[in-house]
Design goal:
Layout (H helix, E strand, L loop, with lengths): L8 E6 L2 H9 L8 E4 L8 E4 L1 H4 L9 H7 L4 E3 L3 H18 L3 E5 L2 E5 L7 H16 L3 E6 L2 H13 L10 E3 L5 H5 L12 H9 L5 H6 L2 H8 L1 H10 L15 E12 L2 H21 L3 E11 L4 E12 L2 H15 L6 E12 L10 H21 L9 E3 L5 E3 L1
Parallel strand pairs: 2-4, 7-8
Antiparallel strand pairs: 1-6, 1-7, 2-3, 5-6, 9-12, 10-11, 10-12, 13-14
Length: 403
């Protein structure tokens, strides 16, 4: 992605997530004021409140005893975290069907990056919202912008504009270049980094909106608020260059390609699988890892996505083994000539690249390792296409030949 590329960031928030899951379990709760959380007779607090309960002032983190006083007919439901975790995993799987650039923030919230695609962020937001409702039956609200800061605030604005007892299911879009104008009329507390103490300081300075913050010279804000003043000045203008963070633990290694035009040429698709297998193999060897599960991801023109996998007999980081396994999975699950929008290859089930060897195996394995190292070195010097390992392929007549 070049520096001139306009990012397409989507923030997704599952509406009243715990309550929505409880309504799936018990549909009689729909439309009623209820809260998920602890007992009102002890020190229980509200974990989540239905939108009907919120009309009475019931909010998350409120003591349940107070919630019952505000809403005498409030129905209390005990938390069932295993159910919430299960649904959260389902939603995350759907998100990763659309892009691998997913940053979960909590059990019910995440950022996604669609910058590599031609379609707009709003296009993907609507696709996500519809898919999550169809497959998991959960409502969600989304914010679309060029960065995480504005996308998150956009979600909050979209939800706040909702004034009924039903779920917001909102989508709020901030077009590129309109970040500062969108933020300007919002109260200063809506900006990330403005807590109660900072809000009071800003009020004393007659700064009440995000636009007021943006209008003040950055150096003046620094003198009055310290280093945070510079941060607030930048954020108030809608500037946020933070990337999507997917964590550091490598549970899998994958590569995928999205085609500008759908592809139904088997040879071209298998060439892409080969290219991805090479990249994955190289990354695994550098990390001194091997994987036992090879996965292929396919997306059709209507954005329907499938992932299929096979488990090897032993872990591997060998490009030919990965390629052969991936092609086998691809052929088995690719309908004849069906156009492909995206194809990906992944390896998971990580382990150090060791296996039980007999004394007689050792020289062979050592030769294989030295050969692969030599191939990597030649490719580094002369390009990735300078040398290819021999492999068995199927030609157009479906006859085996060695190349």
């Amino acid at each position: 992605m070049t520096g001139d590329t306009v990012r397409k960031i989507v923030h997704l928030d599952l509406d009243a997530f715990f309550c929505a899951v409880e309504e799936l379990r018990d549909p009689s709760l729909r439309g009623k004021p209820f809260a998920v959380g602890g007992s009102p007779t002890g020190r229980g607090v509200v974990t989540s409140a239905s939108y009907a309960a919120r009309k009475y002032g019931v909010r998350s983190a409120m003591p349940m005893a107070r919630a019952v006083r505000l809403c005498p007919g409030l129905i209390r439901v005990s938390s069932k975290f295993s159910n919430y975790t299960s649904k959260s995993k389902e939603v995350k799987r759907i998100m990763r069907d659309f892009t691998d650039l997913v940053q979960p923030i909590s059990i019910d919230e995440a950022f996604l990056d669609f910058s590599e695609f031609d379609e707009s962020g709003e296009f993907f937001a609507r696709k996500l919202q519809n898919r999550i409702m169809e497959d998991v039956h959960l409502p969600c609200s989304l914010g679309v912008a060029t960065n995480k800061l504005v996308a998150k605030i956009a979600t909050n604005v979209g939800k706040a504009a909702h004034h009924t007892n039903t779920y917001p299911n909102a989508i709020q879009v901030v077009p590129p270049g309109e970040e500062a104008a969108f933020l300007a009329p919002l109260p200063s507390e809506a900006l990330w980094g403005v807590g109660p103490k900072t809000a009071k300081k800003l009020t004393r300075l007659e700064i009440n909106t995000i636009g007021d913050i943006a209008a003040r010279p950055a150096n003046e804000l620094r003198q009055q608020l310290g280093k945070v003043g510079l941060d607030l000045s930048r954020r108030a203008k809608g500037i946020d260059k933070r990337p999507i963070s997917m964590g550091r633990e490598a549970k899998s290694v994958s590569h995928e390609s999205t085609f500008r035009k759908d592809v139904n040429d088997r040879q071209k698709l298998e060439e892409v699988i080969l290219r991805h297998s090479k990249s994955i193999s190289k990354r695994l060897r550098r990390a001194k890892l091997a994987g036992i599960t090879v996965k292929v991801k396919l997306r059709w023109s209507d954005f329907t996505t499938i992932s299929r996998q096979t488990t090897l007999e032993v872990p591997t980081n060998d490009e030919d083994t990965i390629y052969q396994a991936a092609v086998k999975v691809f052929k088995k699950h690719w309908p004849d000539r069906k156009p492909v929008r995206l194809i990906g290859v992944g390896v998971s089930g990580m382990t150090p690249p060791s296996r039980q060897l007999s004394l007689w195996d050792v020289p062979i394995i050592e030769r294989e390792s030295r050969l692969q190292a030599a191939v990597d070195d030649l490719r580094e010097r002369y390009g990735s296409q300078s040398i290819r390992l021999g492999r068995t392929i199927i030609d157009n007549a479906d006859r085996e030949q060695t190349v």
